[in-house]
Design goal:
The mean pLDDT is 96. The chain has one domain. It is mainly alpha-helical. The longest helix is centred in the C-terminal third of the chain and has 37 residues.
């Protein structure tokens, strides 16, 4: 699975809890939204580090 597909999957998984919290007022869904956002933050940091590493590898291979 590509990083983009993983990102989409994470965001799509949050949809029902967002609706439950904001539209229906279910408080426990807010806790799940916050947990999902924390997982999303972790994933974004990992992807950001990966992008930097790949970019640096490409830059090094061009100079050789």
């Amino acid at each position: 699975m590509s990083k983009y597909q993983e990102l989409v999957k994470l965001v799509e998984a949050m949809e029902s809890d967002f609706e439950k919290f904001y539209d229906k007022g279910v408080g426990s869904a807010g806790t799940r939204v916050r947990k999902s956002l924390q997982e999303l933050t972790k994933f974004c940091k990992e992807v950001r580090n990966d992008v930097t590493a790949v970019k640096n590898e490409r830059k090094e291979s061009k100079t050789k």
